[in-house]
Design a protein that fits this description.
single chain; globular
Length: 235
């Protein structure tokens, strides 16, 4: 996909997605479908838990959804209340989450639904959070202001994309993952600094999303895994 076209697809809308919302009210049938999915996930966890809330967050609880966005459905759990080491509890839930999301392809109106067990004590900053359980906004999103420099973002995305492709080529040649690991850390730091500085519409955040949409982030992880697999397949 053309970079400029990808950038424009990440620009914010003037209204919430009509697939899910009527104004700022969730479609009743959509809420019921989300609850059904959440309850199936809770049953799948296979442990007795007290669910504090079921929330939807991310782009579809905001004005910056795109064709690449999915629905982030979080199951809020007080993990500290479970009679086990907290680190082990978090590892267990993360493993269950990964297993579920890798093996399920659940979509509502063509939008993929991703499930996350989230500790109630874990800080979660988002400009749009909706309680599916209580059917109310916890954090109501605000419309974004304009003023995005598309040409500057395009230039930045092309520069980083060129750097990524060069690293991928060299890493395969050298059978080393060192530079890939550094690049992944660099991209995460770039995005985090942009969000802290200017929020969702920071150049760095949009560049990150453009690179992800074009599959370059996945290529980094796939190449890293391939190199590691070959190094372990030594016989």
């Amino acid at each position: 996909m053309n970079i400029k076209k990808t950038i424009k697809s990440h620009l914010p809308h003037n209204q919430l997605s009509k697939k899910i919302w009527i104004g700022e009210e969730i479609l009743p049938e959509f809420r019921e479908a989300l609850l059904k999915i959440a309850n199936a996930f809770i049953d799948y966890l296979g442990v007795s838990i007290d669910v504090a809330d079921i929330i939807m967050t991310g782009s579809y609880a905001n004005y910056n959804y795109t064709v690449f966005s999915d629905i982030d459905l979080h199951i809020l759990i007080d993990m500290g209340s479970l009679d086990a080491d907290l680190d082990l509890v978090k590892e267990f839930f993360n493993a269950k989450k990964s297993f579920w999301n890798d093996r399920h392809d659940i979509e509502l109106k063509g939008i993929e639904v991703e499930l996350y067990p989230q500790d109630t004590n874990e800080p979660h900053t988002s400009s749009g959070v909706y309680s599916v359980f209580d059917d109310e906004w916890l954090v109501k999103p605000k419309k974004f202001k304009s003023g995005i420099d598309i040409s500057n973002i395009e230039k930045g995305a092309k520069k980083v994309a060129k750097e990524i492709n060069s690293i991928l080529k060299d890493s395969i040649k050298d059978a080393s993952t060192d530079d890939i690991v550094k690049m992944i850390k660099k991209l995460k730091k770039m995005r985090s600094s942009g969000l802290e500085k200017a929020g969702e519409l920071a150049d760095e955040n949009i560049i990150y999303k453009v690179l992800r949409s074009q599959g370059l982030l996945q290529k980094l992880f796939d190449t890293m895994n391939d190199i590691e697999d070959k190094s372990l397949s030594s016989l």
